[in-house]
Design goal:
heterodimer, A: about 375 residues, alpha+beta, Butyryl-Coa Dehydrogenase, subunit A, domain 1, Butyryl-CoA Dehydrogenase, subunit A, domain 2, Butyryl-CoA Dehydrogenase, subunit A, domain 3, four-stranded mixed sheet, 11 helices, B: about 400 residues, four-stranded antiparallel sheet, about 45% helix, binds flavin-adenine dinucleotide
Chain lengths: ~375, ~400
Amino acid sequence: MDFGLSDEQRLLQNTFSSYLTEQVPISRARAISEAMPPDVTALWRDLANLGASGVLIPQEYGGAGLTLLDAALIAQTLGQAVVPSPYLAAAVMAPTSFLEAGSPEQKHEWLPKIASGDIRMGVAATETYSIRENASVHLESGRLRGKALMALDATEAHALLVAAGSSDLLLVSPDAPGLHISPLIAVDRTRTLSEIVFDGVKPADSLGGPRGAGSAIERMLDAGRVILAAETVGACDAMLEQAVSYASQRRQFGRVIGSFQAVKHMCAEMAAELEPARSLFWYAAHAFDERLTDSPLTIAHAKTHISEAGVFIARTATEVHGGVGFTDEQNLHIWFKRIGVNRHLLGSPDVLRERAAKLQGWATCSTP
Amino acid sequence: MDLTYDADSERFRGELRDFILRHRDLAPKSQGVMGGRATREMLDWQKLLLERGYAARSIPRKYGGHGATPNLIEAIILGEEFARSGVSSGVSGPGVDMLVPTLLEHGSEEQKLRFVGPTLRGELSWCQGYSEPGSGSDLASLQTSGTSDGSDLIVNGQKVWTSSAHLADMMFALVRTEANTKRHVGISYVLIPMDSAGVEVHPLRTMTGASEFNQVYLSDVRVPQTNIVGQRGEGWQIAHTTLKHERQVAGNPTELEATLRSLITLMENETRNGVRAIDQSALRERLLDLQARVLSLKCHAMRLLTCDLRGESPGVAGLVVKLQACELMHQMAALALDAMGDLGILYHGSKYERAEGTWQSEYMTWIGFIIAGGTAQIQKNIIAERGLRLPREPRPEAGG
Ligand SMILES: Cc1cc2nc3c(=O)[nH]c(=O)nc-3n(C[C@H](O)[C@H](O)[C@H](O)COP(=O)(O)OP(=O)(O)OC[C@H]3O[C@@H](n4cnc5c(N)ncnc54)[C@H](O)[C@@H]3O)c2cc1C
């Protein structure tokens, strides 16, 4: 029985956080994400060299062959430094679907290139759990039609993974005739989101063979949810740390504001929410890795609960700063927005609570 | 990360399960959590548990325990299996849960030999005499005094909110024994027999309707100085050992899970207009939120256990459990009341009363636990000051 990080895992996290502290200060994270379109190429190259792109990919395909927990620990550091990067789709969701549903040939062809960081894949799967604006993607005699919203990391991707219906997962070239990608601009600019329109697009390949890829899509989404939860914990770490440090310096009424109990208790409440949330994302990742039977439920709970803790910490840490917390210059809002956006990607709390209810066999409507 | 248990632990769990299954009929039905004298049934059950090493497992034999090598995993398994089965884990309360660990850490050999065994067997019951009318959160301001008279102390003062004092044989109390001292200096940790001349107990009815706590008046109570635990005048640190154990009682994840399970069962059974509570989205949303919180605290407990096993300090993560767990228990009871709706307000054995009023009483009891053993606000001070290193609250000067 051992529920804690190993020395290797701490080392992995330290490697990423030291690199990010030195090389990706908030000014650089902002500069990259505010450019139109954002260019993450150089940064992603560095992160790939540190092992981010191949973290989940087995060694035989050139990756590190680590677990989702390890990947989530990296995500925590990326959230802490609000790094703009295609990590979620390219390093976690795409490899997960290949590992779940790829044929040996497909793995052989794609995984080494993903591991090296040479190929970045975007993912479009929102419509499998949430349909808005009449979006949906379907396969009609071998052609993709419809549209997908909130596609992840698709703008600069070399290839796209597209879910059609609930059980088809297709590999599509972004240059394929009939495919149109346009950016969607979120309040958080550190992540790229897009709308993809499919006007009779011929997929390059499909995953899962005749059995389809339904369970691979589920696993891919769950892996992504764990990563978002871990990122949010990292972003909360950064916000709480800034709040405590500000409260220890700023003086009013002749005292540092951290000596006022109202302020002190805001900080204590943030810590009291954050620490159990950290334990929860570790467990969610572990449940995924071990394929524990309760892993889908655990992940739905973890993503939801951490999203709730996230918004609480984001607003409270901002409040501790007073007026300066509301300024653009203080940069706190970069974390605030990342937390707010993570909350809704791959399933808003209400979507995932509904899922958690269904997984436990509770009815999903309340009319008699 | 590895959540499996080794073969020895699994064997231990298997034997324990088997034991519980075979003997559960002998176990007492209710678990006098708030202390007080054990029933005959409880005394027999405790005897059996002690013989088998399922109570006081790692306490040395000469003090009345089972004498096994301390093993955190076995301790966890014991907690889990008794909670899971709903069978009493034996005598509990301030004696076993707080005083015994304190004596083992700080008591004299004579005190350990005299008090630990009978307490473990349920023959000696205890109450905690810390709070006073003028000293609650600010415990260090306490006034109850002890003056030397040869080999005795003469104790005078008043304690209040003393749980189960009306049922207890003994009180572990904080007494200011050194003249002209202030704050945490000059306090002794004293063991006072409740049948001493000059001890007067006035039960206070609590909001749940039961008499769970008391005022205790101490007038010229004579206590031998050999009943002081640790050095005379240096009881403050010892009091903290006890408080540490008191706060641990509240964070037990198996208790959280057991309460959650009862809540779910309740919500699957209560209906309004023919719709189960669990199918009403407003109630179900709240349940799902609490379910996630229970899971989160369960994972958190595993993390803290691992820190313990590895000998690592958990830092601020170790300071949040009492605050979060008591609140969560209270919220689960609050949801249960709302799920029962208007029928949930029935109490005092009324027609249509639900679950014998337990949820109403839990709802109140957990406000008590939010306050007792260091209020939520005091917990937040501790988290902020010790965990996050924010400036300390202004404190009156210590005198000497
Ligand atoms: C069910 C129950 C059982 C108990 N059993 C026992 C027992 O067996 N033995 C025993 O010795 N005691 C017992 N207590 C007493 C308990 O420890 C005290 O009630 C508790 O420590 C608070 O002290 P107080 O009641 O004097 O409240 P106060 O200290 O007066 O507090 C009143 C309010 O002021 C707040 N407050 C006080 N100081 C601060 C501060 N510095 N910063 C912020 N807020 C502050 C508190 O949080 C609270 O909200 C029990 C209490 C309860 C409710």
